[in-house]
User: Which sequence fits this backbone?
């Protein structure tokens, strides 16, 4: 009876599924993600004029704290375009005061009655049109550069061929499980898009820290192809224009911006739901390469569970799953060191990953029933 159980055909199938999925997981971890912190090497290190574009809606506190940091950057020729996107707090007054202090600031006001386009994209387009320089560097009002060399580091490698820069923007560290989930999610998203960009398959970037040539923006009609979608001013634009030859990956810690994370689960859920609305509009090849990672994880764990139930090759499949976890820890530790980020979430990777998969699955089905439509 024992021999029959150990060689049960269904158990063998589950063990085989676990092994195949494990192989895919290890390929992603070592073949794609392990290279994620690698920065694109460029021959150009020119100091070029830059227009920093920021959209702000009801951001009076963040503008007071963060704009002075941006204005003190070590760069000889830059301006800051701030789009006041229909704010009803004291944003307008704060911007006027900042403009007196910093003449390099240019303000674009967007009244609510004129805001007849969807979400942030219309405001961002106005900001880009108002920019006088060819290089556009994007960030958000709730983000702050981690060093005075942010502008130079993000843009110095751009030239007539390299027109798009993908950067990194982690979140502040605070106590609590929600903050760990957010930072782990952000690290994994960055690991994916940086890794695939280094592999010659760039598919997204984050608007909190990204740069591109104005000509590239208007050549494709800006956000025209996806104006009807609430999100996507960053990832859908990159998905549309990025190629292996025109994209630069910048990962050095002094080129990053750091952002304020959501403080409640409901706020973060709303943010995640909004981000999920863009994925169906990615290129088919990008959707496939992104889907393989969570699906292979699911099949690996399902195969492991089935092999355990049928008591088939239990030592082997247990060893595979344990080895995958060790490889993941090693990879994420390397990434956190190269990006200069906190390593506390690395050691909690397994529970954080399992929790994140369950949350993402729930949010995905929630979006199937009702899609979020607003930027804020």
Assistant:
């Amino acid at each position: 009876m024992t021999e029959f159980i150990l060689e049960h055909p269904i158990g063998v199938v589950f063990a085989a599924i676990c092994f195949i999925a494990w192989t895919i997981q290890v390929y992603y971890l070592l073949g794609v993600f392990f290279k994620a912190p690698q920065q694109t090497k460029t021959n150009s290190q020119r100091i070029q004029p830059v227009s920093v574009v920021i959209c702000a809606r009801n951001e009076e506190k963040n503008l007071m704290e963060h704009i002075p940091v941006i204005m003190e950057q070590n760069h000889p020729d830059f301006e800051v375009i701030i789009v006041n996107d229909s704010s009803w707090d004291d944003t307008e007054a704060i911007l006027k005061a900042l403009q007196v202090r910093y003449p390099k600031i240019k303000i674009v006001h967007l009244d609510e009655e004129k805001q007849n386009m969807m979400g942030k994209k219309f405001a961002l387009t106005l900001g880009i049109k108002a920019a006088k320089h060819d290089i556009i560097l994007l960030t958000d009002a709730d983000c702050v550069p981690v060093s005075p060399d942010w502008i130079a580091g993000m843009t110095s490698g751009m030239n007539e061929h390299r027109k798009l820069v993908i950067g990194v923007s982690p979140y502040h560290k605070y106590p609590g499980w929600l903050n760990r989930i957010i930072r782990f999610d952000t690290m994994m998203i960055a690991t994916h898009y940086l890794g695939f960009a280094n592999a010659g398959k760039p598919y997204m970037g984050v608007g909190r820290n990204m740069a591109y040539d104005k000509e590239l923006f208007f050549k494709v009609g800006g956000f025209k192809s996806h104006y009807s979608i609430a999100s996507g001013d960053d990832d859908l634009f990159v998905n549309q224009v990025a190629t292996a030859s025109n994209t630069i990956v910048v990962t050095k810690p002094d080129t990053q911006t750091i952002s304020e994370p959501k403080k409640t689960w409901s706020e973060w859920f709303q943010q995640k739901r909004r981000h999920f609305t863009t994925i169906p509009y990615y290129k088919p090849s990008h959707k496939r390469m992104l889907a393989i990672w969570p699906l292979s994880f699911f099949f690996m764990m399902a195969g492991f569970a089935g092999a355990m139930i049928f008591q088939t090759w239990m030592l082997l499949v247990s060893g595979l799953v344990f080895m995958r976890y060790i490889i993941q820890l090693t990879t994420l530790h390397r990434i956190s060191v190269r990006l200069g980020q906190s390593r506390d979430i690395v050691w909690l990777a397994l529970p954080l990953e399992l929790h994140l998969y369950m949350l993402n699955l729930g949010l995905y089905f929630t979006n199937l029933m009702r899609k979020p439509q607003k930027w804020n």
Observations:
- Strands lie at 50-56, 78-85, 105-110, 135-140, 143-145, 164-166, 210-213, 247-249, 257-259.
